[in-house]
Model the fold of this input.
Amino acid sequence: MFASPYPDVVIPETTLYEYLFGDLTPDDLDRVAVVDGTTGAETTYGQLVARIDALAGWLAGRDVGPGTTLGLFCPNVPAFAVVFHGILRAGAAVTTVNALYTADETARQLKDAGAEWLVTVSPFLDRAEAAARDAGIPAERLVVLDGGAAATAAGHPSLADALRAGLPAPGVEIDPHAVAVIPYSSGTSGTPKGVMLSQYNLVANVAQSRAPLGTSQDDVVLAVLPFFHIYGLTVLLNLAFSSRARLVTMPKFDLAEFLRVIQDHRCTFLYIAPPIAVALAKHPLVAAYDLSTVRAAVSGAAPLDGELGRAVARRLGCVVTQGYGMTELSPVSHVIPLEAADRIPLDSIGYSLPNTQCKLLDPATGEEIEIPAEGESPRGELLVRGPQVMLGYLNQPDATAATIDPDGFLHTGDIATVTADGIVTIVDRLKELIKYKGYQIAPAELEAVLLAHPQIADAAVIGVRADDGEEVPKAFVVPQAGVELGDGDVMEFVAGHVASFKRVRLVEFVDAIPKSASGKILRRELRARG
Done:
């Protein structure tokens, strides 16, 4: 077993609201907390907290509190922070929904999470209304943040309605160890599962991350990575607030707009995923903007190639590091600290966070691998234990037991090595999960969609590398006897049932899907075929 080289930090037994905003000073109240990168509209910490309290009061007046779950289907806009923290301030739980989800996918998540309310924005209203109907959520419990006359006519309240009510925040007793946030993850395999995170989990991960990531009140943090993803939620939204930094939101990634926002708002700290790193390193448009204020860029959500990261550092003249985590870890477990970036290989994921213990297990024997006195260890599955480990999977005790062992170690499904001084490098994956542009795609989910096609007899999906190095879903399809089926037919069918990032990008027709005696797909044979 090995731990962080950094000393443990104190993790208070408190709510996320109290941890982030409980010690605001008069000077902090006037400090800008959030900026809408598109419009330039600013919200101070004082205004933010007042709106959070008002929304919590409005929700409590409608019997929303402990035991209630609300869906949040929203892009990165300043109101996201008000709604997310307002829900938790009321003592309720929130399940964050991927902004790219179809109505069907949204409804499945709402029903699985037991959501009784849904909060969205007007551009998502068609999908949200369909999903709410399917999930049994009435119109008066579908809140449209920027709702206008059409939303009001349909019986949907708005954020403005809630804030105008002027109700005080409730004096509700909140258990920081109760389920508070339910993002969805595919874990190490299978279809998406609700990950139960407590307010204590979120407080802990912010407290653990503050020193290694090094944001301060002088930083201007660009928030383009989605808040509905636990990476954006913890490392951008909550960590920025805990540091009293200024957070600049972007609802979606567009390179020219991304570069303009950095330039115009003089952003100092970027959280990115590898596809953004590729653009920063290679796209000619980057040279047309002044990015000289950027002092650091931290990559996550998928592995960052070391040479690519170094190319970004050279072009922007900033420090580049990367971290590692998963939804089940709230999400961060490892990071290359900014202050150690010059001595830790960028291909690695750096050190374990404070308060975190890890071990490597031999994937063949299950035995723990000894940490070497010098050099690098043999490869093994990375296990993590710490206050950031999830409570478990919602309504899935068997999946929880398979992921968290009796000693509290979470199996990540990733193969890693560790050096004598605690530097961890991810070298492979046990899990079947496909990571496309930082998004998680479960093969089993796509296979279920493919098998619903009346002209497909059998199917399997794996991740393969495209020409640009990105991992993409490839479908192996067995057509029904005597039918004519083309690549385009298959891809179009899948595209009609899933979010855009989940679409099948390659199709190969085969006579049979290789399977074991127990019926398990032999993906290694498919990978050998490419």
The radius of gyration is 23 Å. The mean pLDDT is 93.
